[in-house]
Amino acid sequence: MRLRAIIASLWLVSDYSLAKPSESQTTTVTGQLTFYGAGDNCPPGGDIAYPTIHDSAGGTGTYDDPITCASDKSWLPKGTIVYIAAYKKYFIMEDECEECEEDYSKKGKYHIDGWIGPDTIEKGSTNCEIQLSIGSTDFVINPGHSHDVDITPFFSCSGGNCTCIEEIDDPCVDSGTKCGNECELPQSMSCQDAADMFLLSLSRFEELNDGLCSSGSTTIKSGKSVCQAGSCGGP
Known about the structure:
Elements: E1 27-36, E2 67-71, E3 81-84, E4 89-96, H1 98-107, E5 111-115, H2 125-132, E6 134-141, E7 155-158, E8 161-164, E9 181-184, H3 191-197, H4 202-208, E10 225-229
Parallel strand pairs: 1-5, 2-4
Antiparallel strand pairs: 1-6, 2-5, 3-4, 3-6, 7-8, 9-10
Helix pairs in contact: 3-4
């Protein structure tokens, strides 16, 4: 369940209609495509709001195993399959996206947030998400099963090394103390454990959460909202 708002603000897209695609016929609409991964979820991982064919976010991009995506279910009902020719992959609506819901309800803009994988938080995933995002592209709703498919993963990790399907043009540099993403802790934990969960050094976690770890308490209570990422919004 994506909480971050940073990537959605990177694009300015206009001329969208509030018309809903047909729930059974093949329809093509134009909208914004962004991506999210384990580091955007709270807590980090692959949990999804509307499990349909996956118990957690996943998929290879074929018609029979479409990739999890998130959107506004008022125009894209859960379980709906979408084909995106820009990446030659099928997706399936299985998660919620606050930014997508706001874009549709307030601006009449179609917005899909695709899962980039894997289901563990990894360095470099945010740069890949930003690199792959498209301000305006076609979404084929309820597509046939015969479209061209490329099953190359968007973001893959092996032996501690992670690779994006595209070369990163402009890597984000984490700086300052502005929070790019917040998380409500699911359980009580130490500052060090929280920092480790978000792939932050303890000093960086303390910078982003001024005063939280210097109050004399060794434990952050369950339910406390903390900053989990800096200016880049994720790892």
